[in-house]
Amino acid sequence: MQNKDWEQRFTLEISKTEKKIAQYEDMTQPIAPDNAIGRVSRMDAINNKSVMEAALRKARERLEGLKRHLDKLSTPDFGLCVKCRDEIPIERIFMAPQSSFCVNCARK
User: Is the pTM of this model over 0.70?
Assistant: First the structure.
Protein backbone atom coordinates (compact mmCIF):
# COMPACT_ATOMS: atom_id res chain seq x y z
CA MET A 1 0.00 0.00 0.00
CA GLN A 2 1.01 3.57 -0.58
CA ASN A 3 1.55 6.13 2.17
CA LYS A 4 -1.63 7.87 1.02
CA ASP A 5 -3.63 4.68 1.64
CA TRP A 6 -2.10 4.27 5.09
CA GLU A 7 -2.82 7.93 5.83
CA GLN A 8 -6.50 7.41 4.97
CA ARG A 9 -6.65 4.32 7.16
CA PHE A 10 -5.02 6.15 10.08
CA THR A 11 -7.43 9.06 9.63
CA LEU A 12 -10.40 6.67 9.66
CA GLU A 13 -9.13 4.89 12.79
CA ILE A 14 -8.50 8.23 14.52
CA SER A 15 -12.04 9.34 13.71
CA LYS A 16 -13.53 6.09 15.05
CA THR A 17 -11.46 6.34 18.22
CA GLU A 18 -12.46 9.97 18.79
CA LYS A 19 -16.14 8.95 18.55
CA LYS A 20 -15.57 6.17 21.08
CA ILE A 21 -13.87 8.64 23.42
CA ALA A 22 -16.86 10.98 23.20
CA GLN A 23 -19.21 8.08 24.04
CA TYR A 24 -17.06 6.95 26.95
CA GLU A 25 -16.87 10.51 28.29
CA ASP A 26 -20.68 10.63 28.30
CA MET A 27 -20.82 7.32 30.17
CA THR A 28 -18.33 8.42 32.81
CA GLN A 29 -20.24 11.44 34.04
CA PRO A 30 -20.53 11.65 37.84
CA ILE A 31 -23.44 9.77 39.40
CA ALA A 32 -25.57 12.19 41.37
CA PRO A 33 -26.06 11.12 45.01
CA ASP A 34 -29.67 12.27 44.89
CA ASN A 35 -30.38 9.92 41.97
CA ALA A 36 -33.41 7.88 43.06
CA ILE A 37 -32.06 4.42 42.42
CA GLY A 38 -31.68 1.62 44.90
CA ARG A 39 -28.45 0.96 46.76
CA VAL A 40 -27.56 -2.11 44.65
CA SER A 41 -28.40 -0.29 41.42
CA ARG A 42 -26.26 2.63 42.54
CA MET A 43 -23.34 0.27 43.21
CA ASP A 44 -23.82 -1.23 39.73
CA ALA A 45 -23.78 2.26 38.24
CA ILE A 46 -20.57 3.10 40.11
CA ASN A 47 -18.96 -0.16 38.97
CA ASN A 48 -20.03 0.45 35.35
CA LYS A 49 -18.58 3.95 35.57
CA SER A 50 -15.22 2.49 36.64
CA VAL A 51 -15.26 0.08 33.71
CA MET A 52 -16.04 2.92 31.31
CA GLU A 53 -13.24 5.05 32.79
CA ALA A 54 -10.77 2.22 32.08
CA ALA A 55 -12.10 1.94 28.52
CA LEU A 56 -11.75 5.71 28.16
CA ARG A 57 -8.09 5.57 29.26
CA LYS A 58 -7.38 2.77 26.74
CA ALA A 59 -9.13 4.70 23.94
CA ARG A 60 -7.08 7.83 24.72
CA GLU A 61 -3.86 5.77 24.64
CA ARG A 62 -4.94 4.31 21.30
CA LEU A 63 -5.70 7.76 19.89
CA GLU A 64 -2.31 9.07 21.01
CA GLY A 65 -0.57 6.09 19.39
CA LEU A 66 -2.49 6.44 16.14
CA LYS A 67 -1.58 10.12 15.91
CA ARG A 68 2.07 9.37 16.71
CA HIS A 69 2.26 6.73 13.96
CA LEU A 70 0.47 9.02 11.49
CA ASP A 71 3.08 11.72 12.19
CA LYS A 72 5.86 9.18 11.55
CA LEU A 73 4.27 7.87 8.34
CA SER A 74 6.52 9.78 5.94
CA THR A 75 9.71 9.28 7.98
CA PRO A 76 12.20 6.42 7.72
CA ASP A 77 11.32 5.42 11.31
CA PHE A 78 7.74 4.50 10.46
CA GLY A 79 6.98 0.88 11.26
CA LEU A 80 10.30 0.16 12.93
CA CYS A 81 10.66 -1.19 16.45
CA VAL A 82 12.31 1.43 18.65
CA LYS A 83 14.36 -1.26 20.40
CA CYS A 84 15.61 -3.72 17.75
CA ARG A 85 14.83 -1.65 14.61
CA ASP A 86 13.05 -4.61 12.96
CA GLU A 87 9.93 -3.92 10.91
CA ILE A 88 6.62 -4.02 12.78
CA PRO A 89 3.77 -5.55 10.74
CA ILE A 90 1.25 -2.85 9.81
CA GLU A 91 -1.64 -4.82 11.29
CA ARG A 92 0.13 -4.81 14.67
CA ILE A 93 0.45 -1.05 14.41
CA PHE A 94 -3.31 -0.77 13.93
CA MET A 95 -4.13 -3.34 16.62
CA ALA A 96 -1.82 -1.86 19.24
CA PRO A 97 -0.82 1.65 18.12
CA GLN A 98 0.13 2.59 21.68
CA SER A 99 3.15 0.27 21.35
CA SER A 100 6.25 1.15 19.38
CA PHE A 101 7.78 -2.30 19.81
CA CYS A 102 7.65 -5.45 17.72
CA VAL A 103 6.04 -8.50 19.33
CA ASN A 104 9.38 -9.99 20.41
CA CYS A 105 10.61 -6.81 22.10
CA ALA A 106 7.23 -6.18 23.72
CA ARG A 107 7.43 -9.60 25.39
CA LYS A 108 10.83 -8.90 26.94
Answer: yes
